[in-house]
Design brief:
By secondary structure, the chain is of the alpha/beta class. The protein has 3 helices and 4 strands. The protein has helices at 28-34, 68-85, 101-112, and strands at 8-14, 36-40, 89-99, 116-122. Helix 2 (68-85) crosses helix 3. The longest helix is centred in the middle third of the chain and has 18 residues, at 68-85.
Amino acid sequence: MPDSPPPYTGFVSFPSFGDIPNIVEPDIGLAERSNAVSISISIHNAPIDQKDPNAYQPDQIDERLLYYQRYSILAGMRTIDYLISRGDVAEDQIGVFGVSQGGGLALAVAGADSRVKLLGFSNPSSCNHPGLNYDLP
């Protein structure tokens, strides 16, 4: 939490791929440097300090209700709901970010939720990277 008075920017960070314990950590530095409320979410159905024995299951991409990442995207949108409901986060100052799986999820949430005004990602999964086919620098 920032030390200055609100309104604050709200950031949601998504985890990279994996289900190892403590893969989700709050980005305290981001909150301090940007005067923001920063929240990290887990996408698994287990306490963050424990491995999820059912991680990424079920995962049937052709079945809308059984696609694992569907719930990850919805969790991101519900986290935005929470940030805005606090009353100290500005509704027009919401950002999402992540790396790898988290980058793919940040892209999906930013595309699905018009409240997202800032998107940061690196090496997003769930994306096609055709530039590699053209030997670009």
